[in-house]
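Marked as duplicate of an earlier ticket. Keeping the data here for the record.
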Amino acid sequence: MSGRDLDQAGITDPDMRASYERCRELNAAHGKTYYLATLLLPPAKRPFVHALYGFARYADEIVDDLSSTLSEQEKADWLGSWCERFFDDLRRGHSEDPVCRAVVDTVLRWDIPIEHFEAFLDSMRMDLTVTEYATYDDLYRYVYGSAAVIGLQMVPILEPSGPEAYERAKDLGVAFQLANFVRDVGEDLDRGRVYLPMEDLARFGVTRADLENRVVTPAIRDALAFQIARVRALEESSRSGINLLHPSSRPCIEAARILYCGIVDAVEAIDYEVFDKRATVSTLRRLAVALPAWRQARRARRTYGPGHPHGLHPTSP
């Protein structure tokens, strides 16, 4: 992260700057599309979005990566202890944790409701014990906490002009997560999980055992196509919310929408062969989206400034 970003965000304490930089590193290393979209925001906003990503990634690593040699109970104990410390830090308004220091600062600066973090961590706990979901409603409880609340956390930073922006942000977050589930069926099986609702699979005559065979059949293609249609419906519902954000925030979210939801286009392009191939959005496609968005972001910042907490005010000519 450039010092300019931190300077413009009003982050001056050396330890706090180091924490925000750690969050940026997590974003750059693990969320390449998300990171690319974040660069379209005004510099003063980027550190706070990096912090929210850093928090989500840090918690996810506790569940899936950092403690891979531990038992499920040991993971649960570790996650529980970390969560307790985080909420204690929020209550006192300061953290010594190298990641959570920036997260607590972001929550306080933007008055982000704590319940969004509670819901997120509840979903992380579910990953330790739940290996499949009977219905979409059951799955929605998980994706609300793992994805919808990420959008809700970000909206204050993006400066909405109306409450509808929050509802549409939930739709977009869920669309992103469902797109990942379609792409990552094989990887999720490696972790012992199936995120496609059993009820939806049964509609097409697909069982968990069929997925575990890791052979794409016509029935599995139909089941994946059904989930892709759901992603696209949620994506379409989310689009009106982008126009309710500050103009300097819109190019970032529009680019993220196109690229993340484009994952399902990539799944179709590999003929649903999700067990043997990884559907990816090509570098050329990323550039084709990012370059026009970058120009739009520059125009918006020149016209409206970087964003204002109390409304949209054009800059002086």
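See parent ticket for discussion. The CA atoms of residues 215 and 226 lie 18 Å apart.
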